[in-house]
Amino acid sequence: MTAELVRGQNHPLPETRLEIRISVGKPIVAGVTLSDDQGKVRGTDWVAHPGSPTLPGLEVPRQAAADHRLAVDLGAVPEAVHRVNVLLALPVGVGGPVSFGSLAAPFVAVTALDGSEVASYTITDLDAESAVVALELYRRHDAWKVRAVGQGYAGGLADMLTDQGLPQARELAGTINEAVAQGLARSVAAPPPRPSDEARVRTTGQSTPPGPGAQGPDSTATAPQPTPATPQPGDAGSTSAGPVNYSHPGRQTSAPPPPPPTAAPAEPGRSAQPVAGDATGWSMEERLYNQVWGMFEDLARTTAAYRSAVDFAESRMDQELDKVLSDPRSRIGNTGDLAREAARAKHGLLVDRARAALDRDLGQLAAESEVVEPALPMAFAGWDSPVWHAYRTPMEIPMALRLGDLHLPERPDLHIPLLVRLPLERGLWIDSGRSSGTDSLADVDQLRRLAMDSAVAHAARLLAVYPAGEFTVHVIDAAGSAAGALSPLVTAGVLPEPPASGAAGVSAVLAKLTQRVDLVQMAIRAGAADALPPDLDTAEQLLIVNDFPHGFDDRAVTQLRYLADEGPAVGVHLMMVADREDAAEYGPLLDPLWRALLRLTPVADDHLSDPWVGHAWTYEPPMTPPGSRVLQQVLNQVAHARRTGGR
């Protein structure tokens, strides 16, 4: 049963692995400080905040948001720590509220990993305070308790940290405010609120756990369990697996309350039937997002278990065969033959058992995919989904976007959507060169055309899932070689200006976007985000660069790197269409640029790996079906919505 705390009240914590959920209604900063037995914070390395979001056993979100989740593993905090203080603060210099008195009462809940609420606290009677210590988790006789604090500070973070004994309090407060301002600068014009946002704003007396905000991956991570991320180059070991359990929370996700029961219990001896949206979350979009990543986790885990079992079986067989060969007596008569047959039989039995478990789990995941795929919303759906034929311009920005599909060689027909959170935090590099998935006889010009077609498909999807006028695409095609691939964008009229060509066109576009980044950064740092020039396009910007480095001089290359590094934080994103070998003439100068971008290919390729279990995932680009006009129809709708103001 949930304990609804009042100021000063405490409650025992039954577990050390917890999640702290916060709901306010307006973007706030969430952080954590660690205190010793005297209640003092020993240094800045005892503070988790958006600029440094992780400490042993703790993780906080990187950005300000109306809803937050903080991951806590009290068993992993240092022994010198006696208190874990949960802090809330209002962002400084971004034009938002300046005191908690103008907001709904902040609601804080401590929950177990399965989403069940342990204790909750509504912080009332706040007025001029701009920072508050919401809760403290503290040790008492080798056990942990939670206490409702609600101590506010009109002087903000600096006064709060000073009160906790931190010598560098004001410097750290400035660092935190700067990190938060950079995060908020990602969207100059705030998107319209989700319809469910108002329903989730807390008032005194409510006790339902709050839901997550639409923040980046950092705010959805749960420290005690692996959290999937966009696959990137890396290595990791394998983990164990069992049957996929559709009776949640058997599949752990990192979202709040469990879904309502939608499927009948499974009959004895049979698996529960999968249901679309059978994951935790406040909206169907969020449930489907978490379900897709749950499928990704399950496929990674069960495949890792199978590969590990096969490796073990082969290692055991090799050891037994070595033992047979090392004993001279086994070489006489049929003793050695019998021993070798027995070793191979054991190997076959172990592999067969592992394969049976894998096939069982893959069968369940395939059944779930058949249910989930048709239910995916537009931003998550493939181009072959019927949802695109009923396309209407959305009124709000979705939480994620589909960039393609992922699969493993054990079941090539089982595809998991590759979803990335919006707004994009990394640029994209569409590789037009040869890769491991490219036919050795493939024509170079054909690969470049496929790469540009893929870039146009990604750009069209981004234009389609943003509200009218909230996303702008610019194109640099220095040699004019991509005219055919760009025709859907040009014909529909969704580009604000024709594709730039020649050195002069390259220079003009880069200068315009670089100036936008500079202006927004200066406005945010000065706390004057509302003082931007009236003609500045505050929509998210995407720059597509075709056939790089053709048409780029040293100055243009420097500007491009600047946009790649600084642009995403203020809503300017980069999509490169290039063969890295063509850019080799610049030497190591561009290596940081390539590393900063997510490499995608226009053909199926197994270049993506994740650090969780070390799999090499095969990536399938999201191309439209042959002969389909869905992309052009969607772009025409986007252009019409822009002309008519979203209608």
Walk me through this protein's architecture.
It is a single chain. This protein has about 650 residues and is α+β, with helices and mostly antiparallel strands. Helix content is about 30%, strand content about 20%. The protein is built from 11 helices and 21 strands. The strands form 3 sheets. Strands 1, 2, 3, 4, 5, 6, 7, 8, 9, 10, 11 and 12 form a 12-stranded mixed β-sheet that branches. A 5-stranded parallel β-sheet has the order 16-17-18-15-19, sandwiched between helices. A hairpin with a 6-residue loop joins strand 20 (about 605-610) and strand 21. The longest helix is centred in the middle third of the chain and has 43 residues, at about 285-325. It is globular, with a radius of gyration of 27 Å. It starts with a strand and ends with a helix. Mean pLDDT is about 80; it is low at about 185-255.
How would you briefly describe this protein structure?
By secondary structure, the chain is of the alpha+beta class. It has helices spanning 156-163, 169-184, 197-200, 284-326, 335-372, 444-465, 483-492, 502-525, 554-566, 591-596, 630-643, and strands at residues 3-5, 10-12, 17-35, 47-48, 54-55, 58-59, 65-73, 83-89, 107-112, 117-122, 131-140, 143-153, 400-407, 416-421, 427-431, 471-476, 540-548, 572-578, 597-600, 605-609, 616-620.
